[in-house]
Amino acid sequence: MLHIRNIQEQDYASIISVINDWWGGRQMADMLPKLFFVHFQPTSFIAEENGERVAFLVGFLSQTFPGEAYIHFVGVHPDKRKDGVGRLLYHHFFDAVKQRGCHTVRCITSPVNKTSIAFHTKLGFAIEQGDKLVDGVSVASNYDGRGNDRVVFMKAI
Amino acid sequence: MLHIRNIQEQDYASIISVINDWWGGRQMADMLPKLFFVHFQPTSFIAEENGERVAFLVGFLSQTFPGEAYIHFVGVHPDKRKDGVGRLLYHHFFDAVKQRGCHTVRCITSPVNKTSIAFHTKLGFAIEQGDKLVDGVSVASNYDGRGNDRVVFMKAI
Questions:
Q1: Of residues A43, A65, A142, nearest to B63 (C-beta)
Q2: Domain boundaries, given as residue ranges, for chain B
Q3: How far is the C-alpha of B72 from the C-alpha of B78, rounded, in Å?
Q4: Does domain A1-102 bear CATH number 3.40.190.10?
Q5: I need a labelling partner for A112 at 20 to 30 A (CA). Which of A35, B101, B126, B136 fits?
Q6: How many angstroms from the chain centroid is the CA of residue B42?
Q7: CA-based nearest distance A40→chain B, Å
Q8: B119-136 pLDDT, tens per residue?
Q9: Complex ipTM, two decimals?
Q10: Best interface-test mutation with B: which of A30, A106, A107, A141 has the largest number of B CBs within 10 A?
Q11: How far, in Å, CA of A93 to CA of B59, rounded?
Q12: Contact A35 B70 (CB under 8 A)
């Protein structure tokens, strides 16, 4: 039985210790300082199954653009990837930010992450025009600094 | 002549390309994805001198704790460290978040960063009780994940 709840500060230690493994050894922990688990709890969620954390989503409301929300990080346990948990978390987030007056959600991913690109496209995200094409996908060069190209997603909710 | 203004998305490329150098070669860029320059502009600032960016502060309002603000990242050009630019940016931030209803500012630093600890203490930050002492300073073990101890600061404004 899947249960979704708001993230808590206490979830951090357990999530951060598995995050690199969940991402197949990629060093992801630096991208997820504890601040996201402390200060963005109203729009960040944990999915639990039988009391075990199987997925999480960290997002927030833009403080520059009223009506916009941003998803920073999503992680799903490798064994749970086909169960629609990610999709469920996204919809939970959409509902939460809609209730807080948002009409637009943005997020980004790496051009190498084909699974992520397919996932977001299937969820109805559009890809914003970048400055080059990678395998037919528009990409913003050096978006997150030199060498860190990103695909930029946007969805009206 | 020093001029402080709100951060813009366009500042990112220039800041991110110098940040590791400003920090004496420490790899800091991963801690500063572009999202902070996009979504937290009302409480993030750039200090310019003769049209050159000499310092910046990235902070935001807590979305979990109303009345709390958080400073995530501050960088000052190595040649400008003695000029009080950091202090000026902090006070600019205090004013900005006070106007938005905040009474408390939090931030963290590494226990190895003695300059940062001295700076925050001088500015009136208190150090929150951690679970061990490092050189007489209370430290929260593994705060940002295993091995990433942090000194946790708090200031009423």
A1: A43
A2: 1-102, 108-157
A3: 19
A4: no
A5: A35
A6: 15
A7: 5
A8: 999 999 999 999 999 999
A9: 0.95
A10: A30
A11: 23
A12: yes
